[in-house]
Amino acid sequence: MAQNTYAKLLLINRCSRYSSFCRRISKYIHKDISSKNIRQQFLDYFIKEKNHAFVKSSPVVPFCDSTVPFVNAGMNQFKGIFLGTQVPHFMKVANSQKCIRIGGKHNDLNIVGKDGYHHTFFEMMGNWSFGSYFKKEACEMAWELLTKVYKIPPNRLYVTYFGGDNKLNIGPDFETKDIWKSIGLLDNRILPFGIKDNFWEMGASGPCGPCSEIHFDHICDTNRGNLVNKGLHDLTEIWNLVFIEYNRCADGSIEALPKKHIDTGLGLERLTCALQGKLSSYDTDLFDYLITAIHKNCNNIPKYSGKFGEEDWNNIDTSYRILSDHIRMIVASLADGIIPEENQKLRRVLRRCFSLSQNVFFKESGFVKELSNYVVEHMGEVYPEMEQNIKQIHSIIDFEEDVYKLLKEAAEKELKKISFSNKFRENTDFVDFTPSFILAMKELQNTQPNEITGDLAFRLYDTYGLDSDSIQQLSEILNMSYNPENLVIKMNKVRAKSREEHHIQFNKIFDSLNGDLNKTDDTEKYSYRRNESGYIFPELSAKVLKIIDNDQFISKAHGGSSCSVILDKTNFYCEAGGQQSDRGALIFPNGALRIESVLNINDYIVHRGYIEGEDVILGSECKVVVDRNSRLSCMQNHTSTHLLNAAVKKIKNAICQKSSKVTDRYLNLDVAIFGTKLTINDIKQIDDIIQKIIKKKIDVQVNITDSQGLYSYKNITLIPGEVYPDQNIRIIEIDDGDNFIAREPCCGTHILNTGDIEDFCIVSMKSLGRSTVSLHAVTGTRAKLARQNAQELYDDINVFKKTLSDNLDKPDVLDMAVYSLKQRLKFDINDQSILPLVAKSEILDELNSISKRIKDTGKDNLKNFIDLEMQEALKTGIALTKTNKKYMVHYLRSSTMLESAPLQRATKVCPDIPVLIIAYSDNMVKARCCVPKEFSNEKFNAEKWMKSTVASVFNSKVSAPKGQDGALVCNMKARKVHAQHWDTLLSESLQIATEFVNDNL
After folding, report:
1. What is the pTM for the complete model shown?
2. Residue 631 pLDDT > 80, yes or no?
3. Binding site: what residues are annotated?
4. What fold is seen in the domain 513-523+536-626?
5. Which of 38, 458, 574, 900 is the most exposed place for a label (fewest CB within 10 A)?
6. CATH architecture entry for 877-1000
7. What is the pLDDT confidence band of residue 859, given thresholds at 50, 70 and 90?
8. Closest-CA residue to 485 (of 499, 473, 468)
């Protein structure tokens, strides 16, 4: 429907076709009911009256499902149950799920604001049955809730059912039709539709089934069944009841599931429109508080008037809708730990809001953050994570706005340089102001393609990192045609080729197994214990199932060679989650395989090592022995990585783990911090926090859960972009019972009590960009070593300071001593000379203070050296011209000891004669000459003398000091001269300067 038609519909609020008998819905429905009450009535009905269990909304990004970018329906968190990979925690549940649709199959981003009911963020209320009830109960409860609890007149409702499909070989769902008839609906309000409207599928394969939709007529109580599913804005679907009873196979066929489920979705925004008598969600209390807040903070612009299409000629009302919609989505995303840096779609929405704030609502900064407070106040009671994470929300919005401003400023400068063709359209309100976007725009401007083909789109993606939305935006700015499907086709081809190459490279030798070899059982890697003497890692008896050498399966590997073996079981940890693999040995009766690395290929654990002793034979038995010291160090470091992540979050609020690495020598955590950068005081505070946790000797808890359980945890750290397994998720938890908790999913191995870390200290911090910092730390014996190194260095500095005063007349010796001490601050993370970062910073400050004292003393001494040298030059260095006139041309030898020689000090020593001084320090040459007024004439003055001689040798410029006469005082600009050329050029300059004064004075 055209936008102007929709605008008229909103204003008239009635159906023109049925104007003679249509009435306003407000006569029938209590329009003063709040959305909060609507949501609560839904939950109370199913939880209190129908005995459903409440499950809280999952985060808006699925952490156990890589197939969708955002949670776009209420069923996402129950996908494992539908697939049969999980056992349901409850047989029937209900909730209100936060959903986002800005990517993938469901993308409403570009529609938002143009109509009254599409949103990037919405709430999907739903009830589910996992074998407890099916069609009849689902239909009966839905009808009772709508007509008895919400009191919607039945003559405003229509229901649909699946009309069958010959290709699927599934007939019409007459069972559902009969259920609706038994409830009391007439045939003309029970409508059949095909697979497009009434057969729900999770994806290309997987659980699916027929569905029954309930539609609401906003304006008429006379039958309009012929207009259902025709796209009318006043006759909309509000509830979908899905009967999951089939499975779509990979070949496209359909088969019956052993268990049948119910999955329903009732949109809160659409239901609220119905109950409050509105045609647009933006006119309900879900949005009107935000629209009011926008005008309250920008009262210099017109109030929101609800206009659409052509009537909203200046797009003011559209901007109100976009901004109010996007703010809700932003707050929901940031509260759930999504980081714009890791999610470009969220970043684009944020930047769109910043652009609207500046260009439409004339707020330079802080407006988006201010509006976020209204969302938290309105929705925080329902979704407490919004209130809990308000500081994080604010910090990230501030950070992103600062980045946006910097990028926009730089991009606008670049845009001015681009000579736009006639194809360019001056519509850049929502330009993605990133360097890569501008570079891509430049390329298209230079190459002038007629369209953005699939190959070109892939180049823009591969070279500049642009996603399909950015490419679409680019095509609109440059007025070029672009079909996103062509990029999808191209990317699928590239991925297929990449998978094929990966398969050939890494997995080709496993193709021959054909499933006749069981996957390696590695569960024993978690089987260790602790007693009074320390940690015990039990040996494991295993059998050699395969031997691999040169990408071939062999029956025997000879002693003295390297090979790889697959065992039936192992207790070795294979590299995962950033933790390095175990080392150790496979002990045979007459030899051993010393394991150097462990690799997981398709769940086969491959042990790679060197054979000592006799041959390794297929089918032989061995003892699997893990290197105790290496494993324990890894465990100390991995648990400490969790503590470090939690400690940084505690003091900085808004952070995001980017990556981590755990070895038996050190741990590394790269983390993005959105706010002020880490300081050395922050590092000290982090060290102190972790030290306290170590001293408290807190037991490290390990809990096993699935995706259902994962979403139920509070204060859990999840890595944005990480896809966790659907089941057998290990939750590592350290809770001091006070105000510190480290809780996150992890497949690594950990110590059993924090006291076993023994010691901890951060040893280095390095910036990796605008927001990311890389931290390295050590634990246990290496942390103790670092502290011991620091103490020894402190002791040596104290000894040195005691002798400092007695040796200030020997600056070279002192500088060498300080240099030697500073060299001990340089180390690699694997060195034995490591130091705590806090101690290193304090020591560096101390050494810099000592250096300054030496330098200041030295400067005074060296300045005295200049005076002494010039006094000596007055005695022996004054020369006479042919006419017996005195002058001096002198190389200031003491200048080599200074960072910058004060030539004015040197020339002042002899004010009564012409003098030219040359100085050389730090590979830089400079010169100064002074000529008393009585010696200056047309043939000879300071500028002529300098310019014609020394400056010409060193190819440098000359100038008079500011405010002085160049004929009397002239300086040569300093020039770099390598030491190897210095003596030759100095000799030449002295000679030519002397000849000039002899000829012209």
Report:
1. 0.77
2. yes
3. 638, 642, 746, 750
4. Elongation Factor Tu (Ef-tu); domain 3 (2.40.30)
5. 900
6. Roll (3.10)
7. low
8. 468
